[in-house]
Amino acid sequence: MTEPAVHRRLAAIMSTDIAGFSRRMNADEAGTLAAVNRIRSEIFAPKVAAHKGRVVKLMGDGALVEFASVVDAVRCAIAIQRAMAAREKDPQGRPLLQLRIGINLGDIIIEGRDIFGDGVNLAARLQEIASPGGISLSGNTHEHIGSRIDAAFYDDGKHELKNFPKPVRVFRWPEESGSAERTGPATAPLRRPEKPSIAVLPFDNMSGDTDQEYFADGVVEAITATLSRIRSFFVIARNSAFAYKGRHVNVRDIGRELGVKYVLEGSVQRAGNRVRITVQLIETDGGAHLWADKYDGSLDDIFELQDKITAQVAGAIQPSIQFAEIERTRRKPPHDLGAYDYTMRAMPDVWTLEETSATRALKMLDKALEIDPEYPLALALAAWCWAQRSVYNWAEHIGDAKAEALSRAERAAQMSSDDPLILSVLGAVHTFARNFGAARVLLERAIQLDPNSAWALSRLGWLDNYADRPEEAKRHFEHAMRLSPLDPMNFNNLVGIGAAHQVAGDDARAADFYLRALQERPNAHWVHRNLSAALLGAGREEEARASLQTLMDAHPNMTVARFKDAMVFSKQVLDRIGDQLVALGVPEA
């Protein structure tokens, strides 16, 4: 019997799907389906028809479309994504659904109205690695469109794609997706550690109330903190993971930028006293979903829910993990959820190292402590805010600020003596009080408990600066930046490296690092205390005087005595910097 002829033709195939569809369905099934139907009827179908495409099939949240012309296919994809981007914001503040699109020009097999073959499969793989709101093209597709498209695609290099024996060259749109702005400070791929590595991304707030954003962030903070304390894991610090908040970035890009094998993403929906948390664990190399689950409970169960999620994530990444190790990592919860709420609201402002933010955070933390005076985390964060007031010359009476910081930190440690964050705060406060021996014991204990604590390593770097150990300090700052490559506080690590060079007597290198830090945080005027002196020491007097003017405009009451009172460098270093400040015209007292 003669086999039926196989019909083939060359076609441009467009594959689409909704980014994060499963998570959105778990949180709001009816609303998500309605939104998908609006996209199909108001954007997708009209654009496909206008560009002479044929919808081969719809697959839940995805679609497969055939075009006779590759130019029509690419123009259609761009028109769809531009229309998606032009939609009005959700009236309840929820994030809008985003499409991923992949396009390939290749040989297809026709069977009835369906199509098959490697050309179709490659389009699907390209769609899987596209950024939400973006388009991925195969190399031959990009070559065929030439200059006939009024849009720029950037070359994203070769990618290993599932079921394809050879790497495939990929081009992406929009072009700015490949810029330095997309990748942030870490533009080169980071080498992965040997141990399992993970980043916990900011969860979507599905509550329809932007005021509940802090609650979703608090869930992520708790899961990150617990995973970080599992010694066999490498966990990206919270501040770097939160650099992706509000951004739609492909997990492959996140894996490359942060140097991690896994990401955990999810959503939180809070309604009254009920909460639903949806999470999924994704492998960054190919975007495979390894595990997903949904958790429902009351707010009274929130800490138990967080512990369950952490245990399941740990087990999925490394099945041999001992439950006892997870049990050891648990923080002491507050007695009252209101204290937790205020503390989570304060959290983003605690780490900015800016006076207005620290003041705002302190008000929230004081409210938390009014509700629960024995909540260790609130006490520790408040202690750090007071410590900032002393070391950055924000307080009128520096000694009083140091005493308040020490008092709160010690109270927190009495109530929770094995929490790495609390130990780190206490270590930092003891550093400012010149109790270097106690500070080192506390910070090293914090790192022993939490090897992934970028902040504890940074504080240990500062302690080594103050103890005239600049080479050790630089190693700690560099390690902290690897643990948290996109951390907004990395400017302070750059300041720390600059200070290490200044301690070593290399004012020229010190000035370079201080200036790099100020590029990231121009309003950190306190840096000019050290920068102006380093510039003078490097022979750059005109720049030194401009730096000093910035300092005096921000701190008109600055004197060498106030500088020495706030800072805790060795007497030799303080005297050398003090003499440089006097030479620039800073009053001695």
Structure report:
By secondary structure, this protein is an alpha/beta fold. The chain has 4 domains: 172 residues, Nucleotide cyclase, GGDEF domain (Alpha-Beta Plaits, 2-Layer Sandwich); 132 residues, Rossmann fold (3-Layer(aba) Sandwich), CATH 3.40.50; 120 residues, Serine Threonine Protein Phosphatase 5, Tetratricopeptide repeat (Alpha Horseshoe); 125 residues, Tetratricopeptide repeat domain (Serine Threonine Protein Phosphatase 5, Tetratricopeptide repeat). Strands 1, 2, 3, 4, 5, 6, 7 and 8 form an 8-stranded mixed beta sheet that branches. Strands 9, 10, 11, 12, 13 and 14 form a 6-stranded mixed beta sheet that branches. About 4% of the residues have low confidence.
Report the average pLDDT across residues: 84
Sheet of most strands: 8 strands, mixed
CATH architecture of the largest domain: 2-Layer Sandwich
Q: For this structure, what is the CATH class of the largest domain?
A: Alpha Beta
Could you say what the CATH topology of the largest domain is called? Alpha-Beta Plaits
Kindly report how far apart the N and C termini lie. 104 Å
Count of DSSP strands: 14
Could you tell me the strand content as a percent range? 15-25%
Specify the overall morphology: globular
Uncertain residue segments: 176-188, 320-329
Top keywords for this entry?
Alpha-Beta Plaits, Serine Threonine Protein Phosphatase 5, Tetratricopeptide repeat, 16% strand, six-stranded mixed β-sheet, eight-stranded mixed β-sheet, Rossmann fold, alpha/beta, 25 helices, 589 residues, 14 strands
